């Protein structure tokens, strides 16, 4: 389903790094999906335990709160890789060539600024909940079971760190396209029209490789 | 510069970034972050030596939001509702529904489009997310409509508009979000969405029939199904009914105590469909695909949620919401005029914002103002402005707002459903889908007008509970 | 000086002292020192201490039980069956514990200074179905209770079920839980009283401790006049709170009557048995666990009991 992304590849270093990072990102997104799947089972166990054994799942809410960052954030970089975060494309959709790559470069740089700041901020958020001297290293805990919160908080800077790497690759890709005046650069998500153009070319290249 | 002026400047900057094509979630997050830096530095009187400190406070304040806001039991409904949609696709339920709708309804003018609307309405009863519904039906219904000669843009528009039904007909992630923001009974709201959702579907169908009767070569009726074929199409779609019954009984049991919370109902529904998908032949590879698709859509929605909430956090420090509430309450127009203006404002705002972001952003401000217009939270129907108790007004306004939020899923320039349909179909640009969905604006305007004029459409069912 | 104050929910008996404090401080400084009270706009309720520590806002309220690992020392005030009976006693023990150096030190790690407490009555149960007034009847009971109170019920065979406060009404209606433990104002604002058949008048298993803190940096930055205005207003604000909550408690019996809720009284023998199983062992476990982490737990525990005795002696 919607698996074919509009990201081109070739044998360049940039493209190899792109695909290498994509493996990691896809695995992270899969873990996010597994989390959602686990959530379903958690609720079924909770309902079943309560209705049939009068034994509801202790700390149901605590477990959900621990799992949610994994589901909602862990795979964020995979979505960015494929251009899956929504945007308004009436302006960029009508740009072509260098003007397009410049616009992409500027907005991607803006995202990089935000994500670097958020790696710092979410790391600080994690660090406040973490204490090497405390039992389970915990200085912040959930309401019911008292589970340590730092692992869930650590997910955020980890996922955002991968996102920063992805943004650097995308800046490289757009920068290269801007300097060289490329039509269909590798390692960046292409807007629809450009992607269509490039699809033919990509098929061409693949045909020769195999 | 006052903090309210800072708020307005940053809001302007946010719109510029969005128009330039920056991904919306990050534009909101960046605007919020920069706004926080500004606010905290202003507090230090713009002392250059203390800029670093102000920035540190802003970054740490923003850095709390992604984990803090996402780690919530209430929002855990969103991935569950999305998962249901994708599992139902692999359980063959979407195909079965579309097939049944085709055999029963395709004989009318504009038949396949009408069938698509009713199939999405049926699917809405198991799916809680509008975007997921559109994504799934873009794969099934568009090819069939193209085969019999529909304009591809209109075919895409039908699917984009039909998908919005999923958020009115329970289960609905967005109704849950409304209930959480305004602290009202989730169950009553879910019940209240049912009739307006079906009502919207009928208005859509009427619009399509009207278009088919007036425009030549619009899309032919598909005839020739025997009654035998029609009835044969029902059993494969029946499991939908079972899931609907389960979810309804979790929300509201007409015969006694409900079975549990809506959160649990959603998860149990998902589990049943998961088992059906296994029986229908879903294996490891398909499950993995479904999980990755669920993750992608969930992450996209949650990124908007925390991104917008960084911006909302900045608004909180800028004190903009209370300034707005004061302003609304100072207006001296008739309450109904103000209510209609609020709905129109949602239509305009909805053009630029995604539905969830819009609700998160506005409801903390708008909801108390509307309740005050009606005469307060505890007002009785007899003493109220709109002729309904405070509790019922919360339900009524909730359905109106959610219908507006659904409307914004199909309006340009940012209409999530249209993006998703265009994303699934590489042969369609976003602009194509927006063009195809335009006729449905009229249908939605009619529906909203009727819901405002006749609140009983909304309130009849919850008043029984 | 303008301070931002981070609270959550909406204005209610639970936040009246803060509004009074803001009013008094503004009055005493002729409008020089104002407080901008925000309900949820500045932070999430479980992250108010984080916000104080990064200096995002100057004053905040939080509850110890939301995150015991952030504030281990004051969780002594949330232990079950400490024998606190009135709001005045709750106030006295809180003030005594807040004044202890170990508590102040722990709060300093968050750059926070305890300003005042939010005295809450004992969390009693409202329930549906037949009244539960013996230990045996608690067996298998599904109860919404957190922290030390939850552990106390667990010790007698009840099943604590967690959920956010705003979901409690729905959960009672749906039969997910049979009972919920809250202070009276919360039973009213969360609507649990509307679903209830009975209320335990004297179970008094414990309560939750919710201090109001200020940022140490912000406090130090105040002018002498402003600081004096703030400090001197605390007792008045607390008096206002007690009077306001007192009215609510006076109304409580008529609320019960109006809603047709039965008032259940539990016999002294049953209470003693409950304390034996659900109080003493949990108290002892808390002391052992926290002593092991270098917190003067025994001292804090003794302080609560001795303060209680003193308070009763002086009346
Ligand atoms: Na739905
Ligand atoms: Na829109």
Automatic annotation (TrEMBL), chain A:
Pfam families: DctQ (PF04290). It is found in: Cell inner membrane. Its main location: membrane. Keywords: Cell inner membrane, Cell membrane, Membrane, Transmembrane, Transmembrane helix, Transport. It comes from the Bacteria. GO terms for cellular component: plasma membrane. It is a multi-pass membrane protein. The keyword Glycoprotein does not apply. GO terms for molecular function: transmembrane transporter activity. The chain crosses the membrane at residues 27-48, 60-79, 100-127, 147-169. InterPro entries: DctQ, TRAP_DctQ. Residues 40-172 form the Tripartite ATP-independent periplasmic transporters DctQ component domain. Belongs to the TRAP transporter small permease family. Part of the tripartite ATP-independent periplasmic (TRAP) transport system. The complex comprises the extracytoplasmic solute receptor protein and the two transmembrane proteins. PANTHER family: 2,3-DIKETO-L-GULONATE TRAP TRANSPORTER SMALL PERMEASE PROTEIN YIAM. This is TRAP transporter small permease protein.
From TrEMBL, chain B:
It is a multi-pass membrane protein. It comes from Salipiger pallidus. It is found in: Cell inner membrane. GO terms for cellular component: plasma membrane. This is C4-dicarboxylate ABC transporter permease. PANTHER family: C4-DICARBOXYLATE TRAP TRANSPORTER LARGE PERMEASE PROTEIN DCTM (PTHR33362:SF5), SIALIC ACID TRAP TRANSPORTER PERMEASE PROTEIN SIAT-RELATED (PTHR33362). Residues 12-456 form the TRAP C4-dicarboxylate transport system permease DctM subunit domain. Keywords: Cell inner membrane, Cell membrane, Membrane, Transmembrane, Transmembrane helix, Transport.
